[in-house]
Amino acid sequence: MKSAFYKLPQEKRERIVGACLAEFGAKEYEKAALDRIVEAAGISKGGLYEYISSKEELYLFVVEHSYSKLYDFLRDRLAEAGEELPDDILDRFAAAARAAIDFYLAHPEMIGVIDRTTRIDDPALASKLEGIFGRHYARVFDTEGDSGLAFPRQDVADLIKWLLAKTRGDFLRDLASGSDSSTVSARYVGEWDFILGVMRRGVYKDSRAS
């Protein structure tokens, strides 16, 4: 974003950011329209270009904003509960998944933005988005231990990143279906309990490896 954006009054900045979140949170990047953003924000398109160089720059700003808010919330919520981040990778994800529910319910448009970052066709843009996600992911999840893991820690982390995208998508679809928030939250927690239970114990009753 250009420096002029950060010199705007707070109310106007928040209005522009809100319009961007609504647009990019509801539509894929390619289908999102700057015309709808400026209309919702109450500014001219020429005025918007006083603050941005391109649609991509604006999109990356919105994605960064959404991830920053989410991961700040996760760290603050766990700190408020007086909890140390668990060293075990699965315990840490269990704690974070439960902490995330309130943010998901309060900011579905940000979760919509984050969810749609997984469906970008442009390899160059997708790489930039992966970089944003990786930086924020590392703030919470790159310090846990790997003691006792049967598979390389990075492979386990990559699997969980994929599962994060799946559960976010399931959460948004449940909300969009009209289900009440308590039902959606219970399904989300149940899905993660099942996923983490399978990862801890495997799918067999005995110790078969295949």
Instruction: Report Rg.
Output: 19 Å
* Element pattern in H and E: HHHHHHHHHH
Proportion of residues in β-strands: under 5%
Shape: elongated
Q: What is the number of E strands?
A: 0
The N- and C-terminal alpha carbons lie at a distance of 52 Å
Q: Would you mind describing this structure in some detail?
A:
The protein is mainly α. It is built from ten helices and no strands. The longest helix is centred in the first third of the chain and has 26 residues, at 55-80.
Summarize the structure.
The chain is mostly helical. Helix content is 71%, strand content 0%.
Please outline the helices and strands.
Elements: H1 3-6, H2 10-26, H3 34-41, H4 45-48, H5 55-80, H6 89-106, H7 108-116, H8 123-141, H9 153-176, H10 181-201
Keywords:
210 residues
